[in-house]
Amino acid sequence: MSSYNIRQNLYSLVLACNIATGCTGTQAELQQKMDDGLQPSINDLGIGAWNVVWGPAVWKLHPDETYTAADHIWFVARGADAHNGSNATYVIAIAGLAAKSGANWAEVLNTAQVVDFDAFCKDAGSPPVAAAPESLGPQNPYIALGIANGVYRLLNAASAGQGTALAQFLEDIPCDSRVIFTGQSLGGTLSSTLALAVLQGGTLKNVSPDKVLVYSVSSGTSGNRPFADLFAKSFPLISVGENPYEVWNANIWNKYDIVPRFWNTGSVEEQNMRAIPTGV
């Protein structure tokens, strides 16, 4: 067993997921990089026995472009002895924003249109549709159309290796397992939203809801207050250690990080744009 705790394991898996985010090439070329490098990278991290069981999946909106990065990279790893007794832990790791990915920037910045989250969860196998402005109600949970597009792609794009989509894989996870969604930056935003979507939509039909956890790092905001309240109700904060990062179902951020504060320009909450230190 690794000397690292499970949250350190998770961050290491996220680092491995990002090994090709700085690379450019066609989807097939970047897929090959991940196929060749992911499992060896995980093995070299010293975090114990984590095996890739689905993916890695590499997706590009324009798969034949050679001068852009992958729009999404994600995989599922299984740890047979990952601080969960004798039961397996499955980790869905999602790469962060790639600077040379136009689709990534569109997902981050496309907030002018929103998607009804409840309707999206009921039919996450279909591309999300922006809600008509006249239909919006302040009591309903909504997420940004850009983030909804990202979640849809993560759930439905097929893995080159297995030929199946993540949604299909999640449906078959054994009932005694623990499932953790994790990612950093855009990957963190997508991981928390994806977790709630599959929980609400019944995709994780075999797994008890209390065995589904989120560990997002430096993630932005997906939706409105009713969406945040729904997430907090579905994934209550769990503190499990003395260190601040030893929690479940929370966004891990620091005072210098712009991403978790990006959409908060107010001054009431600590996590806002105006609270970022400007001196060195």
TrEMBL record:
<dbReference type="Pfam" id="PF01764">
    <property type="entry name" value="Lipase_3"/>
</dbReference>
<protein>
    <recommendedName>
        <fullName>Fungal lipase-type domain-containing protein</fullName>
    </recommendedName>
</protein>
<dbReference type="GO" id="GO:0006629">
    <property type="term" value="P:lipid metabolic process"/>
</dbReference>
<dbReference type="InterPro" id="IPR029058">
    <property type="entry name" value="AB_hydrolase_fold"/>
</dbReference>
<feature type="domain" description="Fungal lipase-type">
    <location>
        <begin position="123"/>
        <end position="262"/>
    </location>
</feature>
<dbReference type="InterPro" id="IPR002921">
    <property type="entry name" value="Fungal_lipase-type"/>
</dbReference>
